[in-house]
């Protein structure tokens, strides 16, 4: 039986042993090597050709972010980052996800080894999932459009932004941070509608994601706050561990966050967001599903379509890191447009009419 070959990279001998043991306990996986820094990791990826790499971020000589970039340039391989739960760790992890890493495992500070034992199921599951990612999709998603630098924009809450007749909702999971960067940074500064986003991700990480996207984008990107007024020209990222909904009162739409039980194993849930957007009256609604494992959002998209959604868009298999959520919606027959990642923004501009502005 073929075993998934894993390279474990961490500067701590103890951590390398713990991670290797957890992986080896699954008969479908095999640790073919360990590295103690980024320099060793890059060399061993080329020599051993692993199916998946688990990569720590903080290491001497060459850190995980530097090693990741070299790995994706020299021999693209699915990489899972091992991240701390600090704000700095979250920020570095988001950078890694937008530089080619396919997912991450969070590791709390303190008694890390015991926490990792509890994370065995997540670790093994994500390794198996990463090993199934088509190499072509990994390479396509790692192509970065050159950017002039940080975008300067006007974040003033103008009267124009407070009124809109269309609203968009987007859901994504594994592979989402990179996909969101591709879509959101391509929106023009003149884009007049709000876009509400659920990205499956823990607290702190969603804040780092929103901050990074805001720095790179012409539109305003924020982590959503409870009771916040929804404005046009703004992207709202659901905070980790909170469901995000949109509530309409008179001519206003406001964000409502809550911690009701998980839906299909998720909080935030795409289905919860989509269901709330579908309730907004006198406003054209557009729904988008991108890369991600599972089926979150498919039912919500189906319900929204039946309720009269203006358009539904799903990322096509050819560009998805994980073709789960879009496929589930397509199989329900509720998707109007199936397009590769690099064409999603142009389709958004087309269906909303924003390309003509």
Automatic annotation (TrEMBL):
Catalytic activity annotation: [protein]-L-glutamate 5-O-methyl ester + H2O = L-glutamyl-[protein] + methanol + H(+); L-glutaminyl-[protein] + H2O = L-glutamyl-[protein] + NH4(+)
Listed GO CC annotations: cytoplasm
SUPFAM superfamilies per UniProt: CheY-like, Methylesterase CheB, C-terminal domain
The keyword Transferase appears for this protein: no
Active-site residues annotated for this sequence: 173, 200, 296
PTM text: Phosphorylated by CheA. Phosphorylation of the N-terminal regulatory domain activates the methylesterase activity.
Boundaries of every Response regulatory domain copy: 5-122
GO MF term set: phosphorelay response regulator activity; protein-glutamate methylesterase activity; protein-glutamine glutaminase activity
Cytoplasm is among the record's keywords: yes
Modification 4-aspartylphosphate occurs at: 56
Protein localization: Cytoplasm
Gene3D superfamilies: 3.40.50.2300, Methylesterase CheB, C-terminal domain
Signal sequence bounds: none
Keyword vocabulary terms for this entry: Chemotaxis, Cytoplasm, Hydrolase, Phosphoprotein
Gene Ontology biological-process entries: chemotaxis
Domain of life: Bacteria
Domain CheB-type methylesterase intervals: 161-355
Assigned EC number: 3.1.1.61, 3.5.1.44
Record remark on domains: Contains a C-terminal catalytic domain, and an N-terminal region which modulates catalytic activity.
Function: Involved in chemotaxis. Part of a chemotaxis signal transduction system that modulates chemotaxis in response to various stimuli. Catalyzes the demethylation of specific methylglutamate residues introduced into the chemoreceptors (methyl-accepting chemotaxis proteins or MCP) by CheR. Also mediates the irreversible deamidation of specific glutamine residues to glutamic acid.
Family statement drawn from the similarity comment of this UniProt entry: Belongs to the CheB family.
NCBIfam families, per database record: PRK00742.1, PRK12555.1
Protein name according to UniProt: Protein-glutamate methylesterase/protein-glutamine glutaminase
Species the sequence originates in: Paenibacillus anaericanus
Name of the gene this protein is made from: cheB
């Amino acid at each position: 039986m073929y075993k998934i070959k894993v390279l474990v990279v961490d500067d701590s001998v103890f951590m390398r042993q713990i991670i290797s043991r957890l992986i080896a306990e699954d008969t479908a996986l095999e640790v073919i090597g360990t590295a103690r820094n980024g320099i060793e990791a890059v060399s061993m990826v080329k020599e051993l050709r692993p199916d998946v790499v688990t990569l720590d971020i903080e290491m001497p000589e060459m850190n995980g972010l530097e090693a990741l970039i070299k790995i994706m340039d020299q021999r693209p391989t699915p990489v899972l980052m091992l991240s701390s739960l600090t704000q700095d760790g979250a920020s570095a992890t988001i950078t890694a996800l937008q530089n080619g890493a396919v997912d991450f495992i969070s590791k709390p500070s303190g008694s890390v080894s015991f926490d990792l034992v509890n994370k065995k199921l997540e670790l093994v599951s994500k390794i198996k999932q990463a090993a199934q990612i088509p190499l072509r999709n990994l390479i396509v998603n790692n192509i970065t459009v050159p950017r002039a630098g940080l975008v300067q924009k006007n974040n003033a809450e103008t009267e124009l932004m407070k009124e809109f007749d269309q609203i968009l909702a987007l859901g994504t999971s594994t592979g989402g941070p990179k996909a969101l960067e591709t879509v959101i940074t391509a929106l023009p500064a003149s884009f007049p509608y709000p876009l509400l986003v659920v990205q499956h991700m823990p607290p702190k990480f969603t804040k780092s994601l929103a901050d990074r996207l805001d720095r790179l984008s012409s539109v305003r990107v924020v982590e959503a706050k409870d009771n916040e007024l929804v404005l046009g020209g703004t992207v709202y990222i659901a905070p980790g561990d909170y469901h995000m909904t949109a509530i309409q009162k008179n001519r206003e739409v406001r964000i409502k966050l809550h911690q009701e039980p998980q839906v299909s194993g998720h909080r935030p849930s795409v289905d919860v967001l989509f269901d709330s957007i579908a309730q907004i009256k006198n406003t054209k609604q557009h729904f988008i599903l991108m890369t991600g494992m599972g089926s979150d959002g498919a039912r919500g998209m189906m319900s929204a379509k039946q309720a009269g959604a203006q358009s539904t868009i799903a990322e096509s298999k050819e560009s998805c890191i994980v073709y789960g959520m879009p496929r589930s919606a397509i199989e329900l027959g509720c998707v109007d447009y199936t397009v590769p990642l690099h064409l999603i923004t142009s389709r958004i501009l087309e269906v909303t009419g924003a390309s003509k502005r």
